[in-house]
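Supplementary Methods, section 5.1.

A reviewer requested that the exact input to the structure prediction be made available. We therefore reproduce it here, unchanged from the version used in the analyses.
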Amino acid sequence: MKAKSNSLFHFTKTIENLKGILDNGFCPRYSLEDATALGHEYMGYPMVCFCDIPISRIIDHTSFYGEYGIGMTKEWGLKNKLAPLLYCPAEGVIPSFANFARKLRKTTDTDSPDYLELRSNLMVHVYDILPMIKPLSGKMIVGGSSIEKNFTQENEWSYVPYHEKILYKTDFDEEVEACNMELESSRLEFSPLESV
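The structure derived from this sequence is encoded token-by-token as follows.
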């Protein structure tokens, strides 16, 4: 049995969602992700998620995420800046990275004329990297309930468009619709030749 598929799959729960993807492409949406290693319960990033799970392991995945799916070539994924997630222990690189970002935000040493530009550039990279790091296991919100999940079993690849906002659980419901509307121009389009 192969450990990974040669394709990237995206699954959804309804045929209407699949038809929308076929008509309009993949539109990123903010999703709450486990952020306990960062000192928050959940943080929301804009993304479209795929997986390269081999077909022999697909049943558990489709029963959880939905039975309607589409497969894309990995060449299409790489061309569109999809990347596999980095799964880390909760006490490893995730809190170290978050601690670095917190220190950077709190630094008051502005003697260097390049400080503000450096800080701004580094924070852009923080926003790029955080959505691509996930704990080995953690909590996920499904249907309004929090459930435990082994994330490494998902073989996740994600597309994360440029964004300047992270949503937190406390303000997610109030802000998510407006934030998602701003992502309409970040759709991933494809042709039938790029699907598998």
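The chain has a mean pLDDT of 86. These observations are discussed further in the main text.
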